[in-house]
Amino acid sequence: MKKFLRSKLVLSLVALVMLAGAILIPFLRSHTPAAHAASGDFVSEVTFSQDCQNGIGVGITYDGANLWYSCYASTTADLYRADPNTGTVTASYTIAGGLGSLAYDITRNAIWAGWGNSTDGSQANVRLIQLDASKNVTGNSVQFQAPDALVSGLDDGIAYDATNDSLYISADGSKTIYHYSTTGTLLGSSTWAGLRDRQGDSQRTGPFRLLDRRRQRSQFPRRGTYLRSQHVRVSG
Predict the structure, then answer these.
(1) Which of 82, 115, 138, 234 is the most buried if burial means most Cβ atoms within 10 Å?
(2) Domain that includes residue 79, residue range
(3) Which CATH number do you get for residue 169?
(4) In what side-by-side order are the strands of the sheet with 99-105?
(5) Tens digits of residue pLDDT in 6-46
């Protein structure tokens, strides 16, 4: 009799444990946060299907569906749209004979572009490249000139701030970041510490990495390195 009761108790405990597991495991699965890569972790790499004519890619930006990259001093296409997963170029455009850095503006569905050719470089022209709903280029125009930010014939740093509709610009070789309104008013400037890129020794190529996509941060290449247009790493 005692043996029977003991066996019954063991079976009851086993059944209780199995029932608890059946209840807890789905609960834990539904309440366990999904794993995410840490900010800055390498996630993937994509190779663009087309190079810049002279091998010097400068700017890269993301419009929510496509990657865009620009080419310095190009007599052919100087702006490319590509699939962010495969790297396949889906469109190319000749905008200004060369473009500098790029920044997508979601409020205008447009791309801001710094100078990247001799004419724009001599005047520090900042362009706005308009897109349609399908992310095709429909036109472009010089929006303003940024003479205070003019250090060289190439602007390789531009960022759009949607919180106050302004731009941050820092040209190649500069150690100053200039803050402009989108109408061209200089709002301020600040210096940054580090080794500035010198145009004279910048013909080497290397990969461009995007870090922490959630926060839209970028890691700049080492000193003296231009971005290789067809090679992109996406991290974070």
Answers:
(1) 115
(2) 42-235
(3) 2.110.10
(4) 99-105, 110-115, 125-131, 137-145
(5) 555 445 555 555 555 555 556 556 655 666 667 778 877 88
